[in-house]
Amino acid sequence: AYEEFKPTLWKHNIDLGCNDASQGITLSPVVDTDALNANIALLGLHLLCKHHPHSFPALSLTSEITRGALDARPPCRWEEHTHTVSLPVQNSALKVSTEQLSAGLASGDNEVTTNIHQQNRLSDEKTVNKEVPVQVVLDMGHNPAAMGALARRIAHKFQGRNVRVVYAMSRDKDVRTCLKNVLAVVPSSHVHFVQSKNFRAISREELCELFREETGEEMSDLVAPRADIQDTLRIVAQRLAEEGPDGVLVVCGTGYIMPQARAFVGIDEPRDELDLHRDGL
């Protein structure tokens, strides 16, 4: 269908799952759904220009407008943010070193020695806040294909990073297969369940039962079972920050938890809570 299509127009992305020798395209098997969707749209534009050249005579595949449209992303499709966690730490800058203390003692000056001891005592009592960035990814993938692509992208992009996943699903989806995709790339202890208020949501208790069946383990979570979504995100982000500077928090599984997740990362946007939660949605 695209024998005349120039491969140089493809959105080149190392994560793109595409292999077409006839077009000179041999890229990683890992699927970057952003690039994949952009290329599908680009191919559609190519076919439109080819078969209906008089319908859109001004349409150019290489124009800045077209490029900008292909780069546009809807919310919560591998949407990346940074959330900063403030951790209280001892103000070690006030602490006098052993060498300094030894020098003070060697001076024989009792006042100097007393001041050093007082400063050390104050440093033990005083704490300062350390700002630790946590990378946040919002992705509303909610079926096995989307969750499989998300899992491969997590494994590819965050190799060696400390990843925790906050996960919810709707009960009319293939929840078990989606959960298997998550557990394939994230330690079971790093998976945390929440439940949206929408009537379609699968309960946290049901997710815990599926987790038990798939892992043979009991769900041991950081948060209380009834904690709301934003509290859960705060607690998980806090744990990531405490564990080190390479933390990644992935929120996924359903669009019904994304308004709270976007608010958590500081996005102020209008939303109708009634429509999100009403039984007739």
Salient structural properties:
single chain; 281 residues; alpha/beta; Protein-Tyrosine Phosphatase, Chain A; 3 domains; five-stranded mixed sheet; two-stranded antiparallel ribbon; 10 helices; 7 strands; 16% strand; disordered N terminus
Beta strands, count: 7
Determine the number of helices (DSSP H or I, runs of at least 4 residues).
Answer: 10
Instruction: Tell me, briefly, the overall form.
Output: globular
What is the count of distinct domains? 3
Largest sheet: 5 strands, mixed
Looking at CATH, the homologous superfamily of the largest domain is Mur ligase, C-terminal domain
Percent range for β-strand residues: 15-25%
**CATH C-level name of the largest domain:** Alpha Beta
Rg over CA atoms: 26 Å
InterPro entries: Mur_ligase_C, Mur_ligase_C_dom_sf
Pfam families: Mur_ligase_C
Protein name: Mur ligase C-terminal domain-containing protein
GO molecular function: acid-amino acid ligase activity
List the helices and strands and how they pair.
Elements: E1 19-20, E2 25-26, H1 33-51, H2 64-71, E3 79-90, H3 98-107, H4 110-125, E4 127-139, H5 144-157, E5 162-167, H6 175-183, E6 191-193, H7 204-215, H8 229-243, E7 247-252, H9 258-264, H10 273-277
Parallel strand pairs: 4-7, 5-6, 5-7
Antiparallel strand pairs: 1-2, 3-4
